[in-house]
Amino acid sequence: MLLALLPAFPCEAQQVMYSNLRELVAHEGDTVTTLRVEKRSKNKILLLSGGDYRIEAKDNPSLSRYLRKRCYAVQVDTALYVNCRKMRYKRYRFGNYYAPAIQIGEHVYFCAQPVGQAASSTSTPANAPRLGGDVGNAIAASALINARVFYEINPRNGRAEFVGKEKMMSLLVGYPHLQKRLQRETSERASVIGYYLTELKRLTKEK
Length: 207
Prior knowledge:
- With 207 residues, the chain is of the alpha+beta class.
- 36% of the residues lie in helices and 25% in strands.
């Protein structure tokens, strides 16, 4: 749902690059006008892993290199993307390229493939049969190619923390109607958690 709302084509809207989390939270970035946002295919993600979007600067190799290796996040109009190269979830890496994100106050939540504990909670049921070896790994990777979950960027150390139902319940303190609805949910995928994050952002703005 979130991915479908984001642009996947060259955009002439306001474009801002952030070099670190502090700049992103403070909205103190560098404004540019030549960025191109490209939605990556499922095959490329399966073969090369990483985020759903590639961002580069047209006819500017040095800026494109900066975007790949050093840039922390990019804002294109109202759409925010964080560089997966900068993200860590426990001992796991997300790979390269960019993932769509939502900022709520000083907190940033990004949508990426499930890894580690997040993968086990969003893939096949615990009692489902699993194949081992290379074949099993390939099947598991293929099954998760369409799966997305949300992570929160810890403002203290910049590391990612999985946003499951328990975490989302704590974020919704003060909104009992949303907590009650969340309790009935049976999935922790981005399509579910993204709804509550979007509602939380809307309600936070209305305060």
